[in-house]
Amino acid sequence: MLVNNVAYSWAMIELTAPALTGSANANSQILQGVSGIKWNIKHKVETNYGLGGEPVNRGFGNTEYTASITMDYNTQVMLRALKGSLMALGEFDLVISFANQLGTTDWTTETITLKGCLFNEDGMEAQQDDTSLTKEFDLNPFKIIPSTTAA
């Protein structure tokens, strides 16, 4: 989406996770090494068939929430220092927000709350000639709540 010829970009993203960082401030020091974030909401939809093998309606199943975060090794070390392992950190909410200017004074703010995140793995990845050691971790959110506000 382009607003005033400006596309949403990585530089607009702010992360907040008070349970992890001990601060309600966006982009706290402990989260500075995050280089990627993904989230997805998927609703199971199946076509139901009747006579003649033709579709007659649709059935809806569960909603699945997935998310992941890519962090540099320094961020992983800081998080491990809190409880010894990423898996021992317990549940936390991660708030992703970014804003884009609509006009000269109007802004639209997107906020996505990843509720009940939980690391179910710990580890590292490194290869010869790496200049930054990063790893993607599943966040296993319990629910994802997107919202948009205009100011």
- Total helices: the number is 2
Rounded radius of gyration (Å): 19 Å
Tally the beta strands.
Answer: 9
Report the sheet-strand fraction: over 45%
- CATH topology group: Pnp Oxidase, Chain A
Question: Share of helix among residues?
Answer: under 10%
Low-pLDDT parts are: none
Give a structural overview:
With 151 residues, the protein is mainly beta. It has a single domain (2-39, 66-150), classed as Pnp Oxidase, Chain A (Roll). The chain is 10% helix and 50% strand. It has 2 helices and 9 strands; from the N terminus they run βββαββαββββ. The longest helix has 11 residues, at 73-83. The chain is globular and about 60 Å long. The relative contact order is 0.22. The mean pLDDT is 89.
Summarize this structure as a short list of keywords or feature phrases.
2 helices; mainly beta; about 150 residues; about 50% strand; Pnp Oxidase, Chain A; about 10% helix; 3-stranded antiparallel beta sheet; single chain
